[in-house]
Amino acid sequence: MPVTDPIADYLTRIRNATKAKKVRVEIPASRTKIGLSEILKNLGYIIDYEIIDDNKQNKLNIVLKYKNGIPAINGLKRISKPGLRVYRAADKLPKVLNGLGTAVISTPKGLLTDKDARNQLIGGEVICYIW
Fold first, then answer.
1. In 75-92, which positions are buried (b, 16+ CB within 10 angstroms) versus exposed (e)?
2. Which end of the chain is more exposed for a tag (fewer CB within 10 A), N or C?
3. Mean pLDDT of the chain
4. pLDDT of 38
5. Which pLDDT tens digit goes with each residue over 89-108?
6. Strand, coil or helix: what is 8?
């Protein structure tokens, strides 16, 4: 069954895995999902990820991070959807929880956090919020 919004599927799989206290979650891979995983790793929301090569699409194996049984990821929210894209200029980029969370922005230079996009004065499509 094809997925109409792969990024929402990615976020939902991670959200469900953290609620079920899973250590790992396996997700079909794509360049965007690998970029999102790299941002999550750099921000300390996940421990690591690896790309498992198979003969079809490849898979992402993400190792989730917990501290005393509490997941590092408290929330994930999809903002720009296939039916309603959300674009923002560099000076209008959102702040998630007054800077405690992170917005992921798709820019011409690739996926960036809201802080990095603001520093580089680049706007783009607001993909999701992480806190």
1. ebebbbeeeeeeebebee
2. N
3. 96
4. 98
5. 999 999 999 999 999 999 99
6. helix
What's the alpha-carbon Rg for the chain, to the nearest Å? 15
Please report how many Cα atoms fall inside a 13 Å half-sphere around the Cα of residue 61, on the Cβ side: 7
| Residue 95 main-chain phi, psi, to 5 deg | -110, 125
In sign, the C-alpha dihedral spanning 120, 125, 130, 131 is positive
Place of tokens 């520093």: 119
Q: At 127, which helix (H) or strand (E)? A: strand 124-130
How far apart CA 115 and CA 106 sit, in angstroms, is 13
Which residues contact residue 48 at a Cβ distance below 8 angstroms, ignoring those fewer than 6 apart? 41, 62, 63
Q: What percent of the chain has pLDDT over 90?
A: 94
Compute the distance between CA of residue 60 and CA of residue 9 in angstroms, rounded to an integer.
13
Residue 26, helix vs strand vs coil: strand
Confidence of residue 77 (pLDDT cuts 50, 70, 90): very high
What pLDDT does residue 1 have? 64
Which residues sit opposite 50 in a β-bridge?
A: 61
